[in-house]
TrEMBL record:
InterPro entries: HAD-like_hydrolase_sf, HAD-like_sf, HAD-SF_hydro_IA, HAD_2, HAD_sf, PGP-like_dom2
Transmembrane segments: none
A single GO molecular function term of this UniProt record: hydrolase activity
Species, as recorded: Lacrimispora defluvii
PANTHER family linked to this entry: 5'-NUCLEOTIDASE, PHOSPHOGLYCOLATE PHOSPHATASE
NCBIfam families from the UniProt entry: HAD-SF-IA-v1
Protein name per the record: HAD family hydrolase
Keywords: Hydrolase
Any Pfam family: HAD_2
CDD domains: HAD_5NT
Domain of life: Bacteria
Amino acid sequence: MKKDYLLFDLDGTLTDPKEGITKSVRHALHSFGIEVENIDELCCFIGPPLKDSFMEYYGFTESDAQKAVEIFREYFSSQGIFENKVYEGTRESLEALVKSGKKLYVASSKPEVFVRMILEHFELDSYFEFMGGADFEEIRVKKADVIGYVLDTCEIRDISKAVMIGDRKHDILGAKEFGMESVGALYGYGSREELTKAGADFLVESIFDLQNLF
């Protein structure tokens, strides 16, 4: 696959945010009187826009879902943000891709300020030309919105030279809105069935596989 511009999802693709996200979701649910003992039950929140997930998985109204997101961020911004770990091979693979001449970008549904804080904390920011994410005003939330924002900001016009890499269907479907090819990361939180059904053009078992793919 000959691509010059590689767009990466963050959660479940570059880092494993399970502990921080699930604990933040549990904190938010607790405020609504919902108790969750096993945080593994909340892994479905990793990747998609949070408000959508509260509505889909717990039947929240849009108003309550928005309140839940705000409460989620109380815990996440003070503690959960760094309850996170870099996947084995991430740093080495990013370095190899940059050395081969690829330009790397981040397109995440997480608020951009958090995206930057996480990548800077783990010293991964230097590999990326631009780190894009959602905004707090709820204007740029969906994955397609973020992808479009990154493409426009970085003036990437030739979509045939770009690819989206992510672990959930939202990454794949977002790429399709731009006619962009996509790679599904099977080591993240989306199943093979989910990524295949969404129409991922390629699947990788580990981040190391990206070096061979590109």
